[in-house]
Amino acid sequence: MSNTETGIGKIAPVRAVAKGDGGNRTAWMGLIVLLALVPLVASPFHLDIASQIFIAAIGALALMVLTGIAGQISLGHGGLMAAGAFTTGILYKETGAGIWITLPASVVAGAVIGLIFGLPSLRLRGVYLAMSTLALHFVVIYLGGEYEFASGASTGIFLDPPVIFGYELYDGQAWYYALFLLVAGTYWGCSNLLNSKTGRAWEALHANETAAEALGVQVARYKLLAFVITSGIASFSGALFAYYQSFVSVEAFTLFMSIQYIAMIIIGGMGSLTGALLGAIFVTLVPYCIEWLMETVPYLGLDISTASSASHAAFGLLMILFLVFEPSGLIGIWKRTVARFSSQSKKEGVQ
Amino acid sequence: MQIVANIIVLTSLYALVASGYVLVYKVSRVLNLAHGELMILGAYLLVATSAGITSDPLIAIALTAVFSIIVGLSVYLLLMREMTGQPVLAAVLTTVALGILLRGAMVLIWGPQQLNVASMLSFENASVVLTDSIRVSTASLWLVICTVVVYLGLLAFLHMSRWGMRMRASGQNPLLAAQRGINLHTVYALAWTLSTFSGSIAGVLVALDSRLDVNMAVIGLKAFPAALVGGLDSLHGALIGAGVIAVLEVLLIHYVNPLLSDVVPFLVLIAILIVRPWGLFGTKEELNRV
Q: Is B89 in contact with A130 (Cβ distance < 8 A)?
C-alpha cells in the first residue's frame, strides 16, 4: 500500500547514493568549479538562460521536497511564486524597501500562504488536495490582479535592480553568480533537511501515513512544516524571478507555470533533489530548443505566434512519455546507465 | 427576471461539463483535468468537419458527435489504459499533461485567433424572446435542452441498463466487479467515451453561442467545483452543485465585482473542501481521509 497516493514511480533512495563515497564529492566539486568558470566564456544570452534555470531550480527543489519527498501534491506552485513576486513588488512600490526587507518578507508571506495551503492537507489527500492547491492558485492570482487593478498599475509593477552592499545587481554575470550561490545554498539546505529527523518524518508519512503515525511521527505537524518550508522557498524564488525580470504581473503566473514545475519534478525524477535540478534544466531549455528548431527547420510552419503553443504541446507530450515509459525520470535513466557501466567494469575486473 | 434565465443557462453549462468529470471519477476514480480541453476539442472538431467535409450543419454536428466518441475512446485506449494500476495521482498528472498537449496542438492546428463558429455553419444565433423581459440566445436554449436530455439519458443508462449497472459496480469495487466477470477496460473506455461526448456537446454549444478559442478550456476548470460541490461521484449532485456555483457567480458579478467571476467557483471549492470534502451528495467513504 505504499505510495498509492502520490508515489509516481517508486521513491528513489537518493541519499544512499549521495552519502559517503568520496568520488561523488570530487565530482560535485569539479562541477561547481566548472559552473563558476562559465560566465568567463558564455555570451549574455547563455547567461540569461542559465539564470532562468537557476531560478527554476530553486522552485523545483521546493516542489520536489513537497511532492517527491513528503508526498503532498501541489498544483498551486505558480500561485506561491506569484505571492513572492507580488510581496516584493508591492513592498517596493509602496515603501521603496530594499532587497533585505523584500526578500525576507516574501519568504514570510510564502510561509504563511503555505500554512493556509497546508491546512486542507490535514483532512484531504491525493486528488482532493491537488484541487485545493489549484483553487488557492486562482485565489492568489485574483488577489494580485485586484491589486494591479486597484493601484492603477494594470500592466504590472516595475522594479529597479536590487542593491546588495552598495552594489547594483544588474548585469548578467553578477546575476549568474548570485543565483548560482542561492541554488547551491538551497540544494545544500534541502539535502541537509532530508538527512535530518524532519526529512525522515516526511519520507515516513509519504510511504505510509498510518504507519508513520503509529511510529510516533506527528503527521499534522510535519505535513504543515513541509508546506511552510517549501512554500517559503517557492515564494523566495518568485521574488527572485520578479527582481530578475524587474517586472511583476499576474500574466506571468499562469496555470501553465504550475504545470511546468510539475513537469520538472516528473521529468527530473520523483524523490531526488538532483532530479529537480535536471528537470529545471530540461524544462527551461525546451522552449529554446523549439525556437531553435523553428529557425533551423523553417518548413515546419512554426513562427513566433505558434512557438508558445508548440512548447505547450511539447511539454504535454514529454510529461506523458515520462509518466508512461520512464516514471523514475532523468535521474532514473542516469542511474541505470551508471549501473550498467559499473557492472560491466566489474565483470571486466573479474575476468 | 433576466438574471434567473442567465443562472439557468450557466447552470446547464456547468452541469453538462461537470457530468463528464463525474462519469470518469465515479467509474475509475481518475480526475480528468483535461476535460476542459477535450470539451473545446469537440468544438474544433465541428470547425474541422464543417470546413473540410460538409457544409450542412446537421450532418457536420452528427459527424462531430462521431468524432468526439472516437476521441474519447482513443484517449482511454492509447493513454489512460497505460496508467491502469499506476498510482491515482500519476493518472491525474497524465490528464494534466494531456490537457496541455491538446491545448498546444489545437492552437498549432487551428491557430490562436478566435473563430466565429456560428457564422461558419450559417447558424443564426438569434435571441429568443421568452417573455417581455427575458431573452436568451438560441444556442443557450439548446444548451439547456441538451443538458436535460443528457442528464435524463445518463441517469436512465446508469440505473436501468446492464452496462450502467456494470459501470456503477466497477466504481464501487473494481476488484469484486472484475471477479464477477465485468471487463473493467470496456467499462472504463465507455466512461471516457461518454464523458468526452457530453463534454463535446457543451463545447460545441458554447462555441456556437459566443466564439471559439483555446482559452475557453478554462470553463472546464470552472465547472470542476460544480462536480465537487455536489460530490464527485454523484451525477444528480453535479446538477445541484452547478446550480450553486452558477447562482453565486451570476449574483456576485451582477451585484459586487465582475473580476470575481474567475475566482468564485474556486472559493466555493475551498469552502466545500474545508466543510464537507465529499460534497453534498457524494459518498463519504470515498474520500481517502487521514
A: yes
| Domain ranges within chain B, ordered by starting residue | 2-124+131-286
Q: How far apart are CA B106 and CA B93, in angstroms?
A: 20
Closest CB to A8 among B87, B104, B105: B87
Is position A21 within any domain? no
Q: What is the pLDDT of residues A273-294, one digit of tens each?
A: 999 999 999 999 988 888 888 7
d(CA A280, CA A264): 5
For residues A123 and A209, what is the distance between their CA atoms, to the nearest angstrom?
Answer: 12
Beta bridge partners of B212: B115
Q: Which residues contact B225 (CB under 8 A, 6 or more apart)?
A: A135, B241, B245, B265, B266, B268, B269, B272
Mean pLDDT over all residues of chain B? Answer: 86
Residue B62 has pLDDT above 50, yes or no: yes
In this prediction, residue A108 carries a pLDDT of 93
**Domain of residue A67, CATH code:** 1.10.3470
Q: What is the DSSP string of A3-39?
A: TTTT-SSPPP-HHHHHSS-HHHHHHHHHHHHHHHHHH
Does residue A4 form part of some domain? no
Domain extent, residue A114, equals 38-350
Give the residue from B96, B259, B260, B262 with the most A CB atoms within 10 Å of its CB, the best one to mutate: B96
Phi, psi (deg, nearest 5) at residue A164 = -120, 120
Asked whether residue A215 carries a pLDDT value surpassing 70, the answer given is: yes
Q: Averaged over B26-34, what is the pLDDT?
A: 88
Assigned domain for A3 exists: no
Spatial separation of the C-alpha atoms in residues A17 and A39, rounded to whole Å: 30
Query: All 3 cell numbers of residue B36?
Result: 476542459
Q: Which residue carries 460538409 as its cell?
A: B54
Where does the pLDDT of residue A64 fall: very low under 50, low under 70, confident under 90, or very high at 90 and above? very high
pLDDT-wise least confident of A70-74, B21-25, B42-46, B96-100: A70-74
Flag if B112 and A305 touch (Cβ within 8 Å).
Answer: yes
- The percent of residues in chain A predicted with pLDDT above 90, rounded, is 27
Count: domains in chain A = 1
Interface probe for A, chosen from B113, B266, B276 (most Cβ of A below 10 Å), is B266
Backbone phi, psi, residue B233, to 5°: -110, 25
Check: CB of residue A136 under 8 Å from CB of residue A11: no
Span A137-151, average pLDDT: 84
Contacts of A120 in chain B (CB under 8 A): 270, 273-274
Backbone phi and psi for residue B128, each to the nearest 5 degrees, phi listed first: -95, 130
| Burial of B164: CB neighbours in 10 Å, binned 0-12, 13-18, 19+ | middle
Q: What is the CATH topology of the domain spanning B2-124+131-286? A: ABC transporter involved in vitamin B12 uptake, BtuC (1.10.3470)
Instruction: Please answer yes or no on whether A135 and B269 come within 8 Å at the CB atom.
Output: yes
ipTM of the complex: 0.85
Q: Tell me the pLDDT tens digit for each residue of B66-89.
A: 999 999 999 999 998 888 777 777
